[in-house]
Queue: 2 jobs
Job 1
Amino acid sequence: MPVCCTTALGRMRTAAVLLVLFLGHIVAPLEVPLDPKVLEGLPQPPTITLESPKDYIVDPREHIVIRCEAKAKPPPSFSWTRNGTHFDIDKDPKVNMRPNSGTLVVDISGKDKAEAYEGVYQCTARNEHGTAVSNNIVIRQPRSPLWSKEDNPPIIVQEGASLVLKCRPPAGLPPPIVFWMDHNFLRLPLNRRVSQGLNGDLYFSNAVVSDSRTDYICYARFTHTQTIQQKQPITVRVVNMDAFNETWPVFLNETDFFGDGATEDRRPSFQVPSGPTSSKMVLRGEVLDMECIAEGLPTPDITWAKVSGELPTKRFTYHNFRKNLRITGVTEADAGQYRCTAKNTLGSIHHVITVTVKAAPYWIMAPQNLVLAPRERGQLICRASGNPKPTIGWFVNGVPIHNVPDDPGRVVEGDTIMFEDVMTGSSAVYQCNASNEYGYLLANAFVNVLSEPPRMLTPRDKVYQVIMNKPATLDCSSFGSPIPKITWFKDSHPTTLEGDPYVFYDNGTLVIPVAQAMNSGKYTCVALNMLGKSDNQVYLEVKEPTRILKQPEYQKVQRNRDVVFECKVKHDPSLNPTMIWLKDNGELPDDERFIVDSDSLTITEVTESDAGTYTCIMNTTLDQDSASANLMVVEQPDPPIDLELTDQKPRSVQLTWTPGNDHNSPIKSFLIQYEDSLHDRGNWHNMTEVPGTKITAHLKLSPFVHYTFRVLALNEVGYSHPSLPSQQYRTKAAVPDENPIGVQGIGTQPDNLVIYWKPLTGLQSNGPGLQYIVFWKQRGVDENWKSVKIANVSNFTVGGTPTFAPYDVKVRSVNEHGVGPEPSAVIGYSGEDLPMAAPDNVQVHVINSTLANVHWEPVFYQSVRGHLKGYKVYYSRQGSLHHHNPHHAEQQVITFNGNRTHGKLPGLHPFSRYTLNVRVFNGRGEGPACSNVEFETPEGVPGKPSFLNVVNLSLDSLTLEWGPPHDRNGRLTGYTLKYQPVNNSNDLGPLEELTVAANETRVTLLNLKYSTRYKFYFNAKTLKGSGPTITEEASTVIDEGHPEPPPHPHPLSPTSQSDRHPLHKAHPIVPAFENASFALREDGVLVSWEYLGPENKVYVEYIVENSNEEWKKEKVNNSQSHTLKRLKEGLAYKVRVVAKDHSDQMVHSSEELFVTVPAMTSRQVDIATQGWFIGLMCAIALLILVLLIVCFIKRNKGGKYPVKEKEDAHADPEIQPMKDEDCTFGEYSDNDDHKPLKGSRTPSNGTVKRDDSDDSLVDYGDGGDGQFNEDGSFIGQYSGKKERDTAECIESSEAPSPVNAMNSFV
């Protein structure tokens, strides 16, 4: 082993220099940063960063380059030794050293050969702080010697014998690669029988005649010189003994070298290695190759096993047809005995290879660079292992440590050097050499004594972003000597961070294992040593994680349909997400059918190629989330193919087919169809269906049919197209197997019998010439069967029969091959005639006012003259027993099927007179009627009153008028009136009840509450009870100057007209609207508000400012804003929002908004300046003035036009009652009749129905004449009003409608 100057040094990393700092005790090494600003003023001993390999075989065609690179501060100088002596490169013009480098370049392009520069080289790099040395670099020139001349005689071998062809390649540097080829440069085929050994020899376990050839050539390829050397060809002849003994004795002097017989089979024996055992040594970390090649007949098989254990998993492989066992990365555990076994049918043989593992030195702990501060302590450890154990040698700056002056602060203890109280200027490079007989290791490690205050290396104000619940790592990289102590602070808190949830590392890094939102903020790290301190600030932002809320789902879709995969994602709003869709972990196809939206993927017109796995990936700069779903494309299956008919028999056949592609949807069943080209060409019929798991069907056939079959496959999508038809299969004719079905005998006339049947199909005929034999005979008469043979018909008529006589009939099929089976007879009847007799002793028993029971005696069976179908009861109402009701004479009939003797007559009118008769009927018709029977129905409850009207409403009274029921159903005994108050929330008050005489048609209720809505229930009564109820609602009017009177009973008053003229006032308006405002927009005026009231009928009303028009309104649908689009440009409007109750009375109103709609510039002629327009406007204004004067006069006289009747009879909005806010006299609205009232109850004698309250004088003629006053208006509709109130109404309201004015002018 060379001394220090020749000892190789270990390779160091190029990324950084590692320093060790001792702070009162031995400390961990510190990495010196590569930041140029830090390194600029930092002294550093040399470090070898790049060198050539220890064993360097050069390429003779190129320059020799011996590499040596190092770094240091100040930069190092380089020198070389060759074969242990100084190599003066200045004296050799062929050798140059690269600038700022120790790399040598040797020019061998001239006459100088590479062998002139062979030797052992070592590089030295030094500066004022120390000296580093490289490994020994052995330079050698590659060699590829020629093959020695030799004469290879032909080799003659007996068939079946073993054979070895020697290669013996020349020794080269490095060793050559050996292979066998022929003259055509084709590799010779190798197999279990013929294989190549590790030494290059070619082994034949047993020779065959085909092995004979003249061009067995061994080649050696030298990789470094790129040359191939060739051995002389070897000729091999493999002979068969019979042919050999016949031809070769002439040439061999009749000497039989091989015996008389062929080579016999034999047990295996090893060709290599020889003997039962062998040994092999291998170095740790290298490749162990073992081989066992055996001969024998038949060819043996080779197996391997480790005697004392298992083969190393994942590190062993078999080669050369299991004749080689290779173990890579050998360790000490691979030592032991390995057994190879060769075995054939005649026996086996074993060979044991003992493997010994040695080891060149390898590092346990290589020495690391140390950076120490003055007066600190540290150590260098050089720990290596090997077999045998390596020796450790220490050097200082390339000189053995025992040859340098003693240092009291340095102590060498075997593989460790201890340093204590180091001083400035004691920096040096130490070399450690670990060596044994198999190699050596050399490592450089410097000790650099530095004094440096802390420096921050992490960029200032760096922002760290991390996902919530993920680790957050905050760097605080610093450098200083001694090693600075790192402390952390958060935000403006003066206390240092410590404990959970923080984790601190020696290099200053702060880790939060599970970051939360509360961990966001500013962090300050401070580095401190005895020479100073430095700080830095970083920021942590904890973000919300990206999550897929709605994942794409598995889809099964038919071809040509559309499919949508949804992928809805939630992410931190400060991060920019990117959605990516993948198909089968690759990009989506470049196809316009794939439409990617923000949260979905749509595939239109899906094809089979679109099936696969689709993945949506949501990426942000910090994290991602993904989800996948499969798409399965299904469609109807392909039609079956290869239809084949087998096992053909006269009445059956076996059909076999091959299913088509099911297109991802399993086949449920197969439908087999047939075509009969003889009887029904072109039409396919279903024959049978078999499960989808079967591909055969046994088909039963009929005679005389030309069958062709086809098959359809069915899956969940539907049926496939039909398969191609099978070959035609014809069955032979036979006698019919069946007779016609549906045989029946029915007479169509009293003197005939028609025999019907269902004809056989061509498939049922079983042969040509199909005919039918029809048989018949009368039952109960001693006569023979009569018959007739007919064809191509399905009925036969027998004439001259007695009326309605029973017959036995049957039909038999026959063809050219014979008759069918014996048919069964059925009973038929000849034709029917009308019945001759009427029922007797008809009686009627009245059960109640609407139901009666009828009894009769049945007619004799003989007189029916047919099948008795039943009896019919004809009855008619002759009239009511009450003289007020009109006469009714419509006839009704009720049928009782079968042989009945009684029945019920429902739905009769009470208090009426009826007549009825009964008739028997058969299939031919009805018989004569019995004598008429009369009966009367008793009284019942009456119908509802014709109408119910409310008139003459005042502050505390009103009048009801009604008409008697149209259907009195008896003698009226009186009427019942019930009524109760109803508040604005539809809650009902106490119920009052009155009884009214039958001859009354109106009643007045007094002492009612003013401004109160009442609901009325009214019905009529007879002795049998009360009839259905009709309802009506009305409200008393408001008088704001009078307090609410105390409640007291409401006596019945005689009918009279009130002298008072109260006015029905509007409900008081409660402020419930807030923040009403408007905004001008292009499409109109947007009105907004806030409504706090309970009503849901809200309107926006508007009117032109300073005009007398009515307020116009627009309904609002469940909103708190509305756009008015009908306002005219250039006009000023008043706008308000109102809420109305169920009776359309305004209960709330907003403040009025004054809106001016800006005028738009127009080039059109101003119509207001046209003469014709001015004249038209003047005429309209004059007409309106006249109408207003008339209206004012009529109102002062107290006359009013009818409201409720007009509303019911006409839908014209112009004649609806005026609303409260218009100061007019509407008292109620029909619109709320259909709404249920809270707490309402049904009176005990009737049901409250909406329809009952809709009757009026216009609908019924006999309800009584209306009463009129002097000017022709209805009496009691409304009362008049004081002049003062009328004047106030006119001042506060707009001009009345001209139509209303005309209606009031009667």
Job 2
Amino acid sequence: MTVKRRTQKKRKTTNELEKVLSEKNPSVKDILEKLQALHNELSNIEQGSDEKDKFLSVKNSLLSPTLMMNRYKAIKIYTACCLADIFRIFAPEAPFNTNEIMDVFEFFYKQLSNLTVLNGPHFKQYFYLLESLANVKCLCLISQLKDTDDLVNNFTKTIFQTIQPEQSKNIHVCLLDILEQVIEEAEHLPTECINIILDNYKQNENIAARTLAVNLCCNQPEKLQRYVCQYINSVILSTQVKENINEFIEAHNLILLMFNLSPEVLLSVIPQLQEELTLENVVVRETATDILGKMFCDTNSSLAKMYPQVWEAWLERSKDKKSSIRIKVINYIYDILENHRELASDINNIIKERSIDPDEKVRVETMKVISKLTPKTAQYISESLFKDCIGERCRDKKHIVRLEAAKSLCRIYDMHYNVIFQEKVTDEGTSLFEKFGWIPNTILKLIYTDDKDILVMVEQLLMEYLIPEQLNNTVRVDRIINIVSSLDERGYLGFISLLNRQKTWSTFIEKFLKLCETYNGGIMDNISEIDPVKEQLNQINQSLSNHFPDPKKTYEKIRTFINLNDRRSYELIRNTYNPKLSYEKILNSYKEILKRPVLAPLVEELKILLHKVSLLIINKDVTSPLIKRIKEPLIYWRNKLYLSEWTKGFSNIGEQASQKLITYITENMPVLYEDNIKLLSNLKDNDLVTNTLEALAQIVKLNPNKLPKDDKDITQQLYTISVNGTPEQAKHSTYLLTYVDNKDEILKKLIKNLSDEISVDSVNIVTRLTSLSVLAKYANALFEENDNGTKLVSFIIKDVLLKNKNSTFDEDQDDWVEYTNVDDECKIKCTGLKLMLKRIVAAKDTPELAYTLAQPFIKLCRRLITNEGEIVPTNNTSIIQRYHLRLKAGQCLLSLAKHPVFETMITMNDYLSLTLIIQDPCAEIRESFSKKLLFLIYNRKIHIRYLPILFLVAHEPEKDLRDTIKNSIIRLTKSLKKNKSTVALMETLFLHFVHILAHHSDINNYFNDMITLEQKFEILNIFSKYLEFYGDIVISRENISFIFYLAAQIKIYRDIYSKTSREIYLISDLAQYIIREKYVSADWALLTYPGTFDKFPKSLYSKLAADEGEKNVSQLYIPSEYIEKEKNEKEKNLAHSRKRTGSHKRSKSKASSVNEDVDDMETSKKSSVSSRGRRSRTVSKSEEIVEEEEDEEEDNENEEKSNEKEDKTDTTESDTKEEEKERNTDDADNAETDNDVDNKNKSSTVSAMDEDEDATTENLSIKEDDISTEEVSAPTSPTSTTKTKKRKRKENLSSPAISTRITRSKSRKL
């Protein structure tokens, strides 16, 4: 390079420096002066000048040790500057030989180290040397030298030590230039040099040195690539030999740093990283996976495109055998998707595969990727991936996975909601609805999982994401409608169950707060009351905390809350579930609680609690917008533009969502309408009449003063509806008329209008009978005037029930028809029965009248049941009518049994007739009746002695129905055991169940002398299944001895309804055999029951004399051949099982197949069994059947509604939890329905027309009565000439067993 310099006109060429150096002891001053003069002269000579020859002697003088090794820095720096000038002047030729050059270069780097002193006296000269070396590039002569390793190392080391952040940019540029010359011209770079460069690359103390290293790598990538790769290889080798993990990780961190700052230098390293991905060493694989992941997700990276084979190798690490490595891959895929959308296909595949990873931690991390998605990135994730993978993980067997999956989906839904439901329907919104509209449905169905953590999660997600805070009532209600509209049947029931829980929890919390106020932080006026109140609080605390994810922690936090005695908190919590407050006030109370400083340590628990009770979804502010939306449905549903694939099998409720929500509020939360009475009073809107009337009826029941009684227009409208409206409307309007002013005058007029000249051909006859049934109950005195009640009942019996308008019917039409679709004649008959029932119930407080009315009605109901619904003399009632009539008759008996006064009138024949209904050939009858009975028992509205009837579903062919009842009884059993007074109730009900079996029509065949031994075996097998069904539900390790004891003790009693009692002894022996087989198969210890139990129900059993009983016990009533046959079959099956599976374990009894739900049943304990009062069996001799009935129609309807929902929810309880063996994950969607879902059945609001049933709750205890001992058999059908298919249930039954008949019968069409 030629450097142009100003040429002086006059130059001094004498070599005075040589003269001074030749002196014996030259002075420093002289030497320095001569050097300065020489430097000034040389600096002005241009490169390649012709005058360079006269400096030949000077250059040799400059190499003198006197100069280069002088102890004075000034002499050395001027010498260095002069030597630098010599290199410039003689360029491009070398002014020295190789050895001299080596010495000069060493001399140079030593001088450069003084550049660190910026304020030194000779800094200018040091910078001159630096600049000269950079510009002249004399260091390129290194390529001509040998053994330059030390020189290269020293230059590298010196330069990195010299450079400082406070130095000027020119110094940094020159140092970089010099170092590049050294690196570029060196034939070989020693390891120390590379280490120095890389050490400075990764350090953060000297930023200037780090920048120098980075710039060097950026400018010399081709030179450094090989050496960096060698460095990585040496580190890997060191890791494998010495296990120096820290150095290995540090080296890879350097690679990442280089990738971000100087990626070109890594061209040889990237393939090396690919090799590392396949090594056995876990740390190596994990580190390489981590580093490459960071490289791939870099915004400016094109690594995946440049190295597709490396990208594929990295993707394969998502299948690595080490879960931590799979997680490493997952942790980077979101950033890769965010920055490199072209890789979305590969990202989708990873998410799909890892969402079913065997390791829950990997699945959790995969779900977290989804939670990070933004609207821009979510569009690159396929719809099937969201539904089939993420949606399925919401039912994962691990809670933490379900939590992350559900949370991520809710966040996605909330993020896209405003786009999906815009004011106008768009293609984008429609597409996003298909992609994400199913999310609320999936989330709400999670409550069917029996997991309290999941329930807490669903409540949180509902409040925070699905229906978040929104002060605009219309916007909030529209969002609720949109969510409800996109639900399938189970999703909707799940949503409703959450709302129902709020009612249950609010009642519970109110009781808790009242106790807190009474306790007053432990300060009470009456000291003796402190301990009882404290004990109650502890019990509630325990119960409350059990519903939280961490019960122990919650228990302590609640105890802290109790001791705080913060009255303001009590008030705020009450506000959150106060139905009379607006949404805004509820929300403000909710927020204030969580912000109160005194409650700061309890925020987490309080938030969970508030989610359970706060009326932030359904409150009084939603009623008006909902009613508006009934008239003006949202466009998405009105035009059926959003039709969801996931609601197949359940009609998309769409525009009906508002109607459904209004109906729910009407039935369950009518108090919300109180501020909208004027709106409800508008009965001119046909779309809302039914709901409006029902809501008004509910409100008036709670507060009669709310009805605008003096409004003549409303009264007239109610009167008109009672006469001409639909039966449903008439029921509510007539009830409301019982509260208006001048009601006696109006009701008399109405009764006369409805009753006069009534006939089966009267206009609106069903409506008229419905209105009259309400009046019979709520205005009974007016109803009975002028013997009107008797006349109406006579009309119902003679003209309705005992006559058929149509003399013929289609015998082939035997498929079930829902009540709403049956012909008018059937509705008239059923409504007539309702009227009779309500008239009887109205007389319940007058025992004599009640007895007079109820006895013939009970007889009528039994006759309808035993005659299969046929009581018309001509035997021409249609099959469909008979279906509904015998079902209604059975339901009427259950309704009467709710009241003690009528329950005592139900004889054993009446009781046994109910067993015919639960085993009716029609599946819908069995289902409807069994669910009503279950509903009444669950809600403690009927005597517990009716529960054993439900065990007859053991042979139920409809698996869903059988499992629903079974699981419900299991939950009831657990509930009863929590109460000390009912702890052994289910065990003692065994005696009632045995009695039912002993009077079952099928057992009579056993004692027929004409049947063979094999036929007897078949009958025993049938009854074995009944007993096994009971055992699966009730028997546990703790109570098996007690139940076995009861089964044996039966043989020292006699059946007071049987002459021989042989049937009950047969069942006793069979039960003992079944129980023995059960404990053997379950490997339980059958210990002798240590106590005694002599409280057998006196209404069923009487004790034998001691000697007679002892003799009876020793007699075996089941054939020994049967036991031997069963034993041989078990051994045969066991051998077959061992041969097929190689297993040496198998069940030793049919009874060993116990449902898993029973395994965790609580320990059973025996309890005292109270006696049951006397009940009369006197039957009225009246020829005319002048009965009424109570129906409690609205109670029936509530039961039907709740059972309809229970059917959908409880059927899932029976589903087996299938385990994905290959992926080790579960679908918990078929898990047992959460107990709280059934709170809907337990706490269903009774309709406004239902009366209080306070007296029925006492019926849980088993009573005794000294009933007469005449023999009672299963009811039989009288001989009839009907052409319909009769069910033969006579005592002398010789046909196949009833279970076979049910199986042959038509099952419900799905």
